[in-house]
Amino acid sequence: MTTATLSKETLIVATSEQVSSDLAGESVILNLKTGMYFGLNEVGASIWNLLKEPRLVSDILALIQQDYEVQASQCEQDVLALLQELMASELIEIKN
């Protein structure tokens, strides 16, 4: 499991070892290395779609706050938690 720390300046992207599908606004992701599935709700799917290209965490936070009515502190907490989960599941990676 990855213990890398994410910050607003971290550049992240979806790994190439996964496939994903949109299901009525939600997303299902299959990790091709582990065979494990990962499901995302509407907001999670929005974040996942942003990760198809390398993005800074700060850019993801700004875009999610723009699209959803959420306080900045709650947005940051929830987005970072999801990104940590995706990293632990080997679905995203840090780009430098």
Mean pLDDT: 93
Order of helices and strands: EEEEHEHHE
- Any idea what the shape is? globular
Number of strands: 6
- SS-derived structural category: alpha+beta
Low-confidence stretches: none
Number of helices: 3
Count of discrete domains: 1
**Neighbour order of strands in the largest sheet:** 5-1-6
Taking Cα atoms only, what radius of gyration do you get, to the nearest Å?
A: 13 Å
**DSSP strand (E) fraction?**
25-35%
Helix content: 25-40%
Largest sheet: 3 strands, antiparallel
User: Separation of termini?
Assistant: 20 Å
Describe the structure.
With 96 residues, this protein is an alpha+beta fold. The chain has one domain. The chain has helices at residues 42-50, 57-67, 72-88; strands at 11-14, 18-23, 26-31, 37-40, 55-56, 92-95. The strands form two sheets. The protein has a three-stranded antiparallel beta sheet with strand order 5-1-6. The protein has a three-stranded antiparallel beta sheet with strand order 2-3-4. β3 and β4 form a beta hairpin. α2 (57-67) packs across α3 (72-88). The longest helix has 17 residues, at 72-88.
